[in-house]
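Table S5 (text form). Sequence records supplied for joint modeling of the two-component complex.
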Amino acid sequence: MIISIASGKGGTGKTTVAVNLALSIPNAQILDCDVEEPNSHIFIKPEIKTKKPVFIPVPEVDKSKCNFCGRCSQVCVYSAIAVLKKDVLVFKELCHGCGACSYLCPQGAIKEVNKEIGFIEVGEKINLQFVHGRLNIGEAMAPPLIRAVKKYINSTGINIIDAPPGTSCPVIESIKGSDFCILVTEPTPFGLNDLVLAVEVLRKLGIVFGVVINRCDLGDEKTDKYCQKENIPVLMRIPFREDIAAAYSRGVSIIEALPEYRKVFQELFEKVKDGKFS
Amino acid sequence: MRICITSQGNNLDSSVDPRFGRCQYFIIVDSDTLEFEAVENPSVVAGGGAGIQSGQFIANKTVKAVLTGNVGPNAFQTLQAAGINVITGVSGSVKEVVEKYNKGEFKATQGPSVDSHFGLR
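The corresponding structure-token record, covering 399 residues in total, follows.
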């Protein structure tokens, strides 16, 4: 089973929910797909066993074979190749690695070379398997690295995916294929605005989802009313408590700081697993 | 001398467009005769890489210099590779810019004047 944790708005508590959920259920695996700034490891403190670089193919032009016809530049949707009268420029940071340029070059002047975009670390903590990706600084292409992280999904076990914030490509790449998505929000105008966007994405992708309201005693009623109106189950509420915030600031999970929460997260898992939301 | 000026309109009285990659028009003008051609910029609404596309587009127009408000790093690299002088910080009407250019009032810039995505802000 794959359960992804997404949010729309950043900073609502995706990692908090992902980490505590993963630590509350035995023999799970957590995959931190927020490769631009992974932070699950701060709370899990896994023992990292392996580290592997991840590459994407980028074009390399043999200028002695090139006749500057411009075909590669025409077919590149990302403007990653500029062909001038006597020169070809490759902008590697814009390349998505689709391979169209090398495939369609009439001169056979383009070959693909590997460019490292980041790396994956795999480890464990007692009963929990841990995987995350880290995008290299200055690198813009998160989805290929997210795909590489998701190759570690254990098809027979419970996989918890910590997704990046927002509703763009990296989020789609992280959550697609999930059996269930937990949307973490906060009852503020920004939280609600971005929740609505995330709900649109999930409905389009056809993924079953529910909402966790974090810092639930702040803000206003509008998030609850929205969920009611849209028939979206509110699976759990986490209060705005100083002891939770203090534990977070020290990199300590809620269930470690407040062991009574283990049961609350186990109940969340049961609801998600059984599809019983009331 | 053929030069290219980024413009908000399609004639010599138009104002200079302060963006390069996403300018409305490129005005390719002969600085001696003032004969000109106004070309709509196909990359105004490009998803990304507008500076590179525009740079490549102008490089194939055989001009000596590009005069504009600002140019980003990828556009600058493209124009430089094509051997085109880049002059930034230019404003006023296209005609005034040509006159100033003829008087030798501009100096080519040595690097990009803004970061990537400036023209989207």
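Note: The interface with chain A takes residues 46-50, 52-53, 55-56, 59-60, 74, 77-78, 81-82 of chain B (CB under 8 Å).
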